[in-house]
Structure formats: structure tokens, C-alpha cells
UniProtKB/TrEMBL annotation:
Family matches, as Pfam families: Hexapep
Record keyword Protease present: no
Any one GO molecular-function label of the UniProt entry: acyltransferase activity
Tree of life domain: Bacteria
Protein known as: Acyltransferase
EC number(s) from the headed UniProt entry: 2.3.1.-
UniProt key word Glycoprotein: no
Originating species: Nonomuraea mangrovi
Keywords assigned: Acyltransferase, Transferase
Stored InterPro entries: Hexapep, Hexapeptide_acetyltransf, Trimer_LpxA-like_sf
Enzyme class: transferase
Database matches in CDD domains: LbH_MAT_like
Length: 218
């Protein structure tokens, strides 16, 4: 019986591996042709998440998208969002499984950006201007998002509309990020704040530290 179970288990794993390989979206697959651009070597892992608005999505060369990642442009399928792309992911990125990237106006993710699983990035949020109208029925507001090249977003990070993250930044797991952050920032907390910066004179340091402060503590 154990031999039968091992053989059956091995067969199931081989079949599932084959299904995953066939089900992945690549530039050569039929689903890949629906995208505005899928660069060479791109793979969107199977099982895929919710994907719509593909013609407004561009993904650069050799980027890997994990399992169950949702990529969407607009409120739903079949909406005309204009001539240009809305969601742009650079080359050599890795987007962790279960993440959601929801674009309505403009989301730019630079090259070599890596994320942990279950990251949420959106350029649209609900408003609560009218205190008597249900929030879900009030017209949402858009604000573009950009994430600089070489950055890392930890597990469960949330990037809210209007956020601008510079190059080579670290976003801690679980951070809820809104605002503008310069290159070489370490960002953490709810709401997220700048907790470390980098400069050639000081290396990595707490915000507000000066060369004189560094000399005084040396």
C-alpha cells in the first residue's frame, strides 16, 4: 500500500508541476498577447490571481510574478482607459505571491524591485467627504504611485495612493506607506515613517543626524 501511495503522490506532483508550467502566462502564451507588453523571460505563475485591463499593463524583461498575484487596471474588464499604459513594472523584478497591484491612473515600479508576499499597491482610495453617503458609494480619488528601482517591499506592506518611494529603499513588512521618501530610505510603521537614511558622509543613519553628531558619538 505504501508503494502505491508513494507512486500516486509522485504522479500527482509531476502532473501539478506540468499544470503549473503550462498554466503560467509568458510572452509566448495566448494570454500573454493581451498585455500591452510582456518582456522577454517574463513569467506570471499559475495559479494566477485576478487579472484584467491587460492592454494597459507593461512588464519588463525577466520579471517574475508569483502565484495568485492580482494585476488590474480600471474598475473591471471592458473599460476603455485610453491609449497609454497605466501599470508599468520594470525589468528583473520579483512580485511575491498573493500580492495585489491595483491601478487606475498610474503606477510605476522601477527595475529590480522585489516584494515579499501579500503586498498591496494601489493608486486609488475611497473618500469620505460626504458624511451621509455610504463610503463605498462615494466616487474614489486617484493619485499616482511610483516605487524606485532596486527597492524592497516587505511582506504585507501597503502602498497607498500618492506615494513616491525613491531608489534603493526598504519598506518594512506590514508598513502602511503614504507620502514621499528619498532614495536610500528605510521606511517602517503604521503610518510609515522614515527611520533610516544613507549619505556618503554618514553611511546609514537616523533621520536628522549630522556629521557633527556622528563625531560627538564616535
Amino acid at each position: 500500500m505504501s508503494l502505491v501511495r508513494r507512486a500516486a503522490g509522485s504522479l500527482v506532483h509531476r502532473v501539478y508541476a506540468a499544470i503549473r508550467a503550462v498554466g503560467a502566462i509568458t510572452p509566448a502564451s495566448p494570454a500573454g498577447y493581451r498585455f500591452g507588453r510582456l518582456g522577454q523571460g517574463v513569467s506570471i505563475a499559475f495559479p494566477v490571481g485576478a487579472i484584467f485591463g491587460e492592454r494597459w499593463i507593461e512588464i519588463g524583461d525577466h520579471t517574475l510574478i508569483g502565484e495568485r498575484v492580482s494585476l488590474s487596471c480600471g474598475m473591471g474588464p471592458g473599460v476603455d482607459l485610453g491609449p497609454g499604459s497605466i501599470l508599468r513594472i520594470g525589468g528583473s523584478c520579483s512580485i511575491g505571491r498573493g500580492s495585489h497591484i491595483v491601478a487606475h491612473q498610474s503606477i510605476d515600479i522601477g527595475e529590480h524591485v522585489f516584494t515579499g508576499p501579500y503586498v498591496y499597491i494601489t493608486d486609488q482610495n475611497h473618500v469620505y467627504d460626504d458624511p451621509e453617503t455610504p463610503i463605498g458609494r462615494q466616487w474614489p480619488r486617484n493619485n499616482p504611485v511610483s516605487i524606485g528601482a532596486g527597492s524592497w517591499l516587505g511582506t504585507g506592506a501597503i502602498i497607498l495612493p500618492g506615494t513616491r518611494i525613491g531608489r534603493q529603499c526598504v519598506v518594512a513588512g506590514g508598513a502602511v506607506v503614504r507620502g514621499e521618501f528619498p532614495d536610500h530610505s528605510v521606511i517602517a510603521g503604521v503610518p510609515a515613517k522614515l527611520i533610516r537614511s544613507y549619505s556618503p558622509e554618514l553611511g546609514w543613519h537616523a533621520p536628522g543626524l549630522t556629521p557633527l553628531d556622528r563625531q560627538a558619538t564616535a
